[in-house]
Amino acid sequence: MRDKTVEKLIKAEVRRQNETINLIASENYVSRDVLSALGSVFTNKYAEGYSRHRYYGGNKFVDELEDLAKTRALKLFHLSPKQWSVNVQAYSGSPANLAAYLALVPPGEKIMGMRLDMGGHLTHGHRVSFTGKLWHQVPYGVNKKTEKLDYGEISALAKKEKPFLIVTGYTAYSRRIDFKKFRAIAEACGAILMVDLSHIAGLVAGKAYPSPFPHADIVTMTTHKTLRGPRSALIFSRKQYSAAIDKAIFPGLQGGPHANQIGAVAVALFEAAKPQFPKYARQIVKNTKILASGLQKLGWRIVSGGTDSHLFLVDTWGRGIGGKEAGDKLESLGIIVNKNAIPYDTRSPVDPSGIRLGTAALTTRGMKEREMLRIAGLINAALLKNASAAFIQKEVVRLCRKFPIRV
Ligand code: DSN
């Protein structure tokens, strides 16, 4: 690379990613093939419109690429093209969710979504997001005692508020979601059911988590979390909604699609369809359960008592350590997490009561149960300061070198 400044930063980031334990639940490491599609000449091309209906010439191969990504996406989730369509042009998760609402929900109508501080996402109707400004959020949460979804409470709220659309699928909820129950709740109040599958898309593709597709009207997902693709998003819709979704993406919301990104998504979908992907997805869940129970045995309270997915929340404030202090301390020793609110948190979002841990990235590196138990020990030692910083740092680097990332 001629630009030595950027080259130096890329090399430094490779080193950082290689030598830290990444427990950010929304991150992963893509394959070389995904990287190379992302860095391909498809980035040079403008392709406003859809296959065979573009506003620019020269799109023969972009058309083939976009069609391929769509076919692979439907196939991966076992969807009939007679019943479902997929749009592969959304730049990322937030525009995907916005497009879905723009297509389906009249402005000012009610969107029933999980509160951000209980595991929802900004785009599920939070007041600081466009989704809370253009639409009216009916917030729901988890049960105070169990810290799990309470379908009775959600159903009563839906009946009372009659939202136009209900969103399920979260960013910090570790338990299984009963999509069938959500379908029944949506039907009882005449709402559209949208599932934001961003976090667990790879688990569903790998059959390590139940599929929402038999029950949902719309499924949005980012492609860069457990699905292990580039940063992008997909919007699946039942046929009656598909034309409106396509129009909302283009020309409603976006300009030209990022063809290089669509190519990289196609590669990720190819990889997720391989026979070894379900093994990867199952290992993520195994690793997460072991990491959570390892920490539990060391005295840490895990929100809701455990996990069924790729992530969980640790109540660090239960032992007098704020989420910010915990995150900063761990980062200083090479363990990367994010501070996170826990349900019914009394502390501020900038220094909440917990941290969120996820294992998709470490599982990609090849780490298994043994390493998870070691990492639980290192987190415990770091937070309780019962081992020296130098020792923990050395252990982190030793572990990381055994499981290098591939770039
Ligand atoms: N920011 C992502 C996460 O970390 O969960 C969701 O968009």
Automatic annotation (TrEMBL):
Pathway: Amino-acid biosynthesis; glycine biosynthesis; glycine from L-serine: step 1/1; One-carbon metabolism; tetrahydrofolate interconversion
Residues found modified as N6-(pyridoxal phosphate)lysine: 225
Record bears the keyword Cytoplasm: yes
UniProt cross-references to InterPro entries, sorted A to Z: PyrdxlP-dep_Trfase, PyrdxlP-dep_Trfase_major, PyrdxlP-dep_Trfase_small, Ser_HO-MeTrfase, Ser_HO-MeTrfase-like, SHMT-like_dom
Enzyme nomenclature, EC number: 2.1.2.1
Keyword Cell cycle: no
GO biological process per UniProt: glycine biosynthetic process from serine; methylation; tetrahydrofolate interconversion
Binding site for (6S)-5,6,7,8-tetrahydrofolate: 116, 120-122
Predominant location category: cytoplasm
GO MF, one example: glycine hydroxymethyltransferase activity
Signal peptide: none
Pfam family, one: SHMT
Cofactor (UniProt): pyridoxal 5'-phosphate
Membrane-traversing stretches: none
Coiled coil location: none
Catalytic activity, reaction form: (6R)-5,10-methylene-5,6,7,8-tetrahydrofolate + glycine + H2O = (6S)-5,6,7,8-tetrahydrofolate + L-serine
Residues annotated as domain Serine hydroxymethyltransferase-like: 2-379
Keywords of this entry: Amino-acid biosynthesis, Cytoplasm, Methyltransferase, One-carbon metabolism, Pyridoxal phosphate, Transferase
Family: Belongs to the SHMT family.
Assembly with partners or alone: Homodimer.
Annotated function: Catalyzes the reversible interconversion of serine and glycine with tetrahydrofolate (THF) serving as the one-carbon carrier. This reaction serves as the major source of one-carbon groups required for the biosynthesis of purines, thymidylate, methionine, and other important biomolecules. Also exhibits THF-independent aldolase activity toward beta-hydroxyamino acids, producing glycine and aldehydes, via a retro-aldol mechanism.
Name the record gives this protein: Serine hydroxymethyltransferase
Source taxonomy: Bacteria, Candidatus Joergenseniibacteriota
